[in-house]
Specification:
By secondary structure, the protein is mainly alpha-helical. Among the domains are: 103-177 and 212-254 and 269-345, Up-down Bundle (Fumarase C, Chain A, domain 2), CATH 1.20.200.10; 351-411, Fumarase/aspartase (C-terminal domain) (Ribonucleotide Reductase Protein R1, domain 1, Orthogonal Bundle). It is built from 18 helices and six strands. The chain has a two-stranded antiparallel ribbon with strand order 1-2. The chain has a two-stranded parallel sheet with strand order 3-4. The protein has a two-stranded antiparallel ribbon with strand order 5-6. The protein is elongated, with a radius of gyration of 30 Å. It starts with 7 loop residues before the first helix and ends with a helix.
Amino acid sequence: MIPRYTRPEMGRLWEQENRYQKWLDVEVAVCEAWAELGEIPKPTLKTIQQKADFDVLRIDEIEKTVKHDVIAFLTSVSEFVGPESRFVHKGLTSSDVVDTALSLLMREAADIIIKDLKDLMKVLKDQAFKYKDVPCMGRSHGIHAEPMTFGMKFALWYEDAKRSLKRIETAKKVISVGKISGAVGTFSNLPPELEDIVCKKLRLAPEPVATQVVQRDRHAEYMTALALIAASVEKISIEIRHLQRTEVLEAEEPFTIGQKGSSAMPHKRNPIGSENLTGLARIVRSNAIAAIEDIALWHERDISHSSVERVIIPDSTILVDYMLNRLKGILKDLYVYPERMKANMERSYGLHNSQRIMLALTEKGLTREDAYAIVQKNAMDSWKKGKGFMEILLKDPKTTKHLPTAEIKKIFDLKYYLRNVDFIFQRVFGQSI
């Protein structure tokens, strides 16, 4: 079932009627190719082109008896076409149609996701430049490390999105193959040139060597590209969830008029969108594993992959489409609190300058080990006593013996840490800042 929140174009793509339409597109393209090779009379082809159609409910009815979806589909088509339907599916096996049509569907799904990514990247770029010069504390292991800017977070995510875009574009190319080579891929009942003609009509490349199916490492690569997109969405979502914590509160998901956060606690404003995206990423990742499991089939083909793909491919493309659009909305309207970022930086008493003090001491001739010991002792005193790191350093004779007051104060200049932000942005966005 297609979730109610699905964007219409991706939802319609995977509806049963569109799936059968792609099958019909392949069947008609094969008939046209046969006609070009002189194996189907032109009047017969015209009849097929004009009459070829299907009825979804009729296919369902027939399938209850024949227990084979492609045969049920072909029976329905024959009821529309009439006697000329004897030329439909000529020389083909079911997977010729199903796999080639699936490639068409996956290519169209990739196009939607590529557009989604590009739309998200526009938002990421806008927010990166909006907050390029807004200082915030960088954290490692969740602990204050050194200052950065809030815009750098968006620049990082933009760079991630560029890689995701390249991967899905590559995966689209990898999956854009057709297979019209018969029961075990040997062209036993049709000529190789027919496959070339059909694939050209459908804008696909022929599978160079096939068994009964298009090889499933192609699908696995596609699904892995989706999983990596989902993982990047989760990466951003987890950051937002952390930033929205009460103790941090440097950014917050948009909270609309009338929205409620808790049935019990009216004060709650929870990062439900980011939590939702975090959970959905787990599904997409799991589906990629299932796709990898589908690569190995018995001999020239078994059907163990089919049931899996009917679930994971529509689900993953639908979910990634939804995830990218929901994330775009969250980031576009994200509440950002620069004053809170400033206040949070001050909570660690200036300890983020510890590396600069250590390096300054080594430049005065101390060994790295001795300089580290001096700085660490003062840093621990600052943290334990809740006093400014600079204040502690200025009272330590081991430090002031090597570093005069003016030099220590200069080291605590925030601008030093942010002096290369423009350089980083130029590398990411490729333009003068």
